[in-house]
Amino acid sequence: MPKNLHLELTDDQRRGLRVLLARRDLTRHTRLRAECVRLLDRERSVAEVADLLECNPVTVRAAVHRFEKGGLDELPDAPRPGRPARILGPEDRRELAGLLDVSAAAGIIWSAPALRDRLRDERGVEISAYWLWELLRRDGFRWKRTRDSVRHHADPVLQQAARAKLEDLRPCGRPLMPDSMT
Hints:
Blueprint: H1 11-22, H2 28-41, H3 46-53, H4 57-70, H5 90-106, H6 112-123, H7 129-138, H8 156-168
Helix pairs in contact: 1-2, 2-3, 2-4, 3-4, 6-7
């Protein structure tokens, strides 16, 4: 049977632990490890802590060993391997928002791939079109898919002339086109 772990923190460590647990940006695992340390400091057993936090006792023991190895600095997750996440800096986002506002006023429509290409060419920012679309959505920008139509380019004078010509070709007083088409 494994020995019972007992942990006693100094006042500075308790203060640091409270500060750590007050942060809102902690990952789930970091918070779990910090809670394990906090509860063990309050003289709870490993089994009680595991039951309270709904985790395995092995997880509790691993958190204690991490803490004993390096203190509070050892509790957060290690950096993940691979390319860091692509983010737009605040300046890039402000410029993009300004561009979209000016474009909307001028009636210019942007697609996410076109915006991505512009960011790459002008600001040197490499980002996927989907991630750019997601960031813009989070910033409150909305758009919908445009329709392939040229109806807004139609000349009303030419349309009226075509209707008159069709009216002359109408056989026996019946309309050539239903009313819904005009």
